[in-house]
Amino acid sequence: MKNLKERILELKKEKNAVILAHYYQESDIQDVADYVGDSLGLSQEAMKVEADIILFAGVHFMAETAKILNPTKKVILPDLKAGCSLAESCPPEDFKKFTEAHPDHIVITYVNCSAEVKALTDIVVTSSNAVKIVNSIPKDKPIIFAPDKNLGKYVMEQTGREMLLWDGACVVHEAFSLDKLIALYKQNPDAQIIAHPESETHILKTANYIGSTAGMINYVKTNPSNKFIVTTEAGILHKMKQEVPDKILIPAPSNEDNTCACSECGYMKMNTLQKVYNCLLHESPEIFVPDTIMKKALIPIERMLELS
Ligand code: 13P
Ligand code: SF4
């Protein structure tokens, strides 16, 4: 009797499908994926796919972005309810009013938002290119940055630019506890703290390195240190352990009093191996984006890819 992973690999061939997975997906899903990456890498990869079907093992806004970049492909997502607190914090109607109230501003949105919000945007960014892209905007141009206020504050600090911030946050990165992090560091003073810029300023101040998930993986590979406290979603540890099997990786503690000592994204974890199998088998749930939104949302995503 074949196991679920073997059946998924077989189905993938049969259906001419590829699986793209984010680093926050559970380990078993990452193991059956053709490509595992951060938001930017996944967008770049989605654009190149020649297979008929893209199974996106990630959250809804990522699958939507893949559909916008490669609209002739069937894009499927194991669980349509796999959302994101940042995307949910920014309803398109409210965001439209906000941009209309500031018509002289350039609108920059973090990729973690809906296709409708992207359609109201001038340039999309991810955590890997936000600083570079904001630096490329002429100094006299005022900027709206949405929906992540924490990433926004970090970009403001790095670029010296004032920006009008939307009040959104990632529930996972906001849950890291400074007190617990300091206590953990005291027990491991030889460790480097690495953090994702969706984290709050007080957490980022402790970090030796701040970057996207791909940036963090690259840092642990290239930095000579042997021990790291990892301040992002715990799914990243799977890839990190594969890349640096001899180094010590400690997940940063969250405020939540849960059984897991680390932070997990409940949205990302809605996808399971069984749902990946069912999704491939039935080619459903499928992602649909209305044509008008698709055309408008493509422009700021393409601008981002050009500037990356
Ligand atoms: P990156 O993959 O760009 O690092 O973003 C992390 C994240 O929270 C995705 O939802
Ligand atoms: Fe959204 Fe945060 Fe989950 Fe990423 S980790 S999908 S930003 S809620």
Tell me what the structure shows.
This protein folds into three domains: 4-82 and 268-288, 3-Layer(aba) Sandwich (Rossmann fold); 86-171 and 293-307, Rossmann fold; 173-251, NadA-like (Rossmann fold). 42% of the residues lie in helices and 15% in strands. The protein is built from 15 helices and twelve strands. It has a four-stranded parallel sheet, with helices on both faces. Strands 6-5-7-8 form a four-stranded parallel sheet. A four-stranded parallel sheet has the order 10-9-11-12, with helices on one face. Helix 7 links the parallel strand 5 (106-110) and strand 6 (123-125). Helix 3 runs parallel beside helix 4 (60-69) and helix 4 (60-69) packs across helix 15. The mean pLDDT is 96. Iron/sulfur cluster is lined by residues 24, 59, 84-86, 112, 170-172, 198, 233, 265, 267-268.
Write the layout of secondary structure elements.
Elements: H1 4-14, E1 17-22, H2 27-32, E2 35-37, H3 39-48, E3 53-57, H4 60-69, E4 74-76, H5 85-88, H6 92-100, E5 106-110, H7 115-118, E6 123-125, H8 130-135, E7 143-146, H9 149-159, E8 164-165, H10 178-187, E9 192-195, H11 201-204, E10 209-210, H12 213-222, E11 227-231, H13 236-243, E12 248-251, H14 273-282, H15 291-307
Parallel strand pairs: 1-2, 1-3, 3-4, 5-6, 5-7, 7-8, 9-10, 9-11, 11-12
1,3-dihydroxyacetonephosphate (13P) binds at residues 38-39, 84, 112, 126-127, 170, 198, 212-213.
Subcellular location: Cytoplasm
Function: Catalyzes the condensation of iminoaspartate with dihydroxyacetone phosphate to form quinolinate.
Pfam families: NadA
